[in-house]
Write a structure and sequence with these properties.
Elements lengths: L6 H8 L2 E3 H11 L4 E4 L6 H12 L6 E4 L3 H15 L3 E5 L1 H17 L4 E7 L15 H4 L16 E3 L6 H13 L6 E6 H5 L1 E3 L18 H13 L3 E5 L6 H14 L3 E2 L21 H4 L4 E5 L17 E6 L16 E4 L2 H12 L7 H27 L8 H12 L4 E6 L15 E3 L9 H11 L4 E7 H6 L2 H10 L5 E6 L4 H10 L4 H4 L14 H6 L4 E5 L2 H16 L5 E6 L3
Parallel strand pairs: 2-3, 2-4, 4-5, 5-7, 6-7, 9-10, 9-11, 11-12, 12-13, 14-15, 14-16, 16-17, 17-19, 18-19
Antiparallel strand pairs: 1-8
Helix pairs in contact: 2-3, 2-7, 4-5, 4-15, 9-12, 10-12, 13-14, 14-21
């Protein structure tokens, strides 16, 4: 009787092989992943063996880092992408590790952040195969549909079936994650499959699947320019920045040339300098009430329909990776025209197309520009005056922002705020200088995202500001351990009001004259007594300070900045603020 070898077995005899675990890791390097943020478990033997095997065979690998909590791993991948524009990988332990990834996946999906999420899967077989179940948790962690935990917030998910799929599956995962609109993807890795051998001859070749790109039609850009030319009271609302440095410049020039007010409503990234003559702050209400054209730039919710009313004849143009935010079931903002694509590229193309249309509109644009500049200057003067004016013994968040701006001066810095220092009192003039927590509200984001951003840009001053509740949610013991272990000199500012301030604001917004608003102690918002957060940071040898009065803050901030910039040491300043 004769037997025929399978094509796969023939390949194995001709080429040196590698375990599927090692192949997955090596392929990540080939598609451009720099780091694997991992929290290992009992499903990781083939991953760890694969790392050692690939190193022994001199196969290039991403840097694999132990991250002692998956939420921190997801936050670091998020922050690293913000700094570099390159998708990174997170590896978690079976279903329990994936559960800890879920908040980060929700955040990434909402903000179009590509992350390659991997987790092990309980072995299918109980015996007779390398990688079979060996300990009781192999039974306890089994699920019928493990990917269901995060399927709704991922673009694609799959379970590795055969070892020879390793190259193709990683290529596909990376291409889908980085195609517009971007977002996280998930791959489940059964232990038995990772233990099997697969070919190693294609591990270092370029990816065979390129990400998909999209761009608006030229006719649609021309239509948008025509709407702008005819508009008397246009308004720009920008939420997720201008895409890139070129888009930032184009948006600033477009606003100046056409005299358009720019509102950064619930801004996630900086879209225009906060002191730009056309920057009218964060409240779109007065401008929306009279607008006849609104350019919506990458906004999940450009206004609140329950609060802000749009004139019936107002036209609305949306720009962004996914202008209609199709992942969200209910989002019914008017859209007369949508320009899909890379936000920065669309803005550059739109601004260039609009330039010739300026001819013959000079008087109208000059008149509008003067009016907007006057209103913007008045608004900014009022914001800074209110921020500087004490409203009691304790500081306000606005005072912290304004003081931080004065201390920074012209020092290039990136500020990540999670219910921490607000945007409007800051003086920021360059792209990449401001990021706010995702609109999905998955808390514990700012601290690890700051670590990831600083990892990517070690020479830049990176400041993570957050409320006391957000600091607790960040698993601060894990984050400080990461900062010390990886020598990441991040500056953390904890604005402590001993409560869920956002919850209080929400209650008073819905029930301004209600029982809760008028009570001495609002139910379910207090975090008192909060721990001494400096002691948490000191456990990982951080430099710390506690500030409770206005006149102490500037000195503490300068000392902390000196620690992170000159001494390369992580630092935490706990700032007592008013409720």
């Amino acid at each position: 009787m004769t037997t025929t070898q399978s094509p796969f077995m023939q390949t194995q005899t001709k080429k040196p092989g590698i375990t599927a675990g090692g192949a997955i890791l090596a392929r990540l390097k080939a598609v451009g992943v720099d780091y694997i943020f991992a929290n290992s478990g009992t499903d990781f033997p083939p991953i760890i063996e694969g790392l050692a095997e690939a190193r022994a065979k001199h196969i290039p690998l991403p840097t694999a880092i132990v991250i002692p909590h998956e939420n921190a791993a997801m936050g670091m991948a998020h922050g690293y992408y913000l700094a570099t524009g390159r998708a990174q990988a997170v590896m978690a332990h079976t279903n329990v590790g994936l559960a800890n990834c879920a908040i980060g996946a929700i955040n990434a999906a909402t903000e179009h952040i590509p992350v390659l999420i991997f987790s092990g899967r309980t072995p299918v077989v109980e015996q007779g195969r390398l990688g079979a179940r060996t300990v009781p948790i192999s039974w306890g962690q089994e699920m019928r549909d493990q990917a269901a935990m995060i399927r709704e917030c991922t673009k694609w998910d799959y379970e590795l079936k055969f070892p020879e799929q390793a190259v193709d599956v990683v290529d596909r995962a990376h291409a889908i994650a980085t195609s517009l609109p971007r977002g996280p993807v998930y791959l489940s890795l059964p232990r038995e499959v990772l233990c099997e051998a697969c070919p190693a001859d294609e591990l270092e070749k370029p990816s065979r699947i390129a990400p998909a790109t999209i761009a608006p039609r030229a006719a649609d850009i021309e239509q948008a320019v025509a709407l702008l030319r005819e508009a008397e009271r246009p308004l720009i609302i920008v939420q997720r920045g201008a895409g890139d440095a070129e888009g930032f410049t184009a948006l600033s020039r477009l606003a100046s040339d056409w005299g358009i007010p720019v509102c950064q409503y619930w801004a996630i990234q900086l879209g225009i300098p906060t002191d730009h003559p056309m920057s009218v702050g964060v409240d779109p209400g007065p401008w929306l009430a009279e607008a006849d054209l609104v350019l919506v730039i990458d906004c999940l919710a450009p206004w609140s329909p329950d609060i802000h009313k749009l004139p019936a004849d107002c036209k609305v143009v949306h720009i962004g990776q996914d202008p209609l935010y199709s992942r969200f079931p209910v989002r019914n903002f008017r859209a007369d025209l949508s320009l899909p694509g890379e936000t920065g590229e669309v803005l550059v193309a739109f601004e260039a197309a609009a330039r010739p249309a300026c001819e013959g509109t000079g008087e109208k644009r000059d008149r509008r520009r003067d009016r907007v500049a006057s209103a913007a200057a008045k608004r900014r003067e009022e914001v800074l005056r209110n921020a500087r004016t004490p409203r009691g013994e304790l500081m306000t968040k606005e005072f912290v922002s304004q003081c931080l701006s004065e201390v920074l001066g012209e020092t290039p810095a990136t500020i990540l705020s999670e219910l921490g220092a607000p945007l409007e009192p800051l003086t920021l003039r360059e792209p990449g200088s401001w990021y706010q927590e995702p609109h999905s509200g998955g808390l514990g984001w700012s601290f690890p995202a700051g670590l990831g951003y600083k990892l990517a840009k070690p020479e830049r001053l990176v400041i993570a500001t957050m409320g006391d509740g957000s600091y607790i949610f960040a698993n601060p013991v894990a984050c400080h351990q990461i900062a010390e272990a990886m020598a990441i000199p991040l500056l953390v500012l904890v604005l402590n009001n001993e409560e869920w301030g956002a919850v209080r604001q929400s209650v008073t917004g819905v029930y301004p004259q209600g029982y809760a608003a008028s009570s001495n102690e609002m139910p379910l918002v207090s975090l008192a007594p909060t721990p001494d957060f400096t002691r948490v940071a000191e456990a990982s040898r951080a430099w710390t300070a506690r500030v409770a009065s206005h006149d102490e803050l500037a000195g503490a901030l300068r000392a902390a900045i000196e620690q992170v910039t000159l001494h390369r040491r992580q630092a935490l300043v706990e700032i007592r603020i008013a409720r």
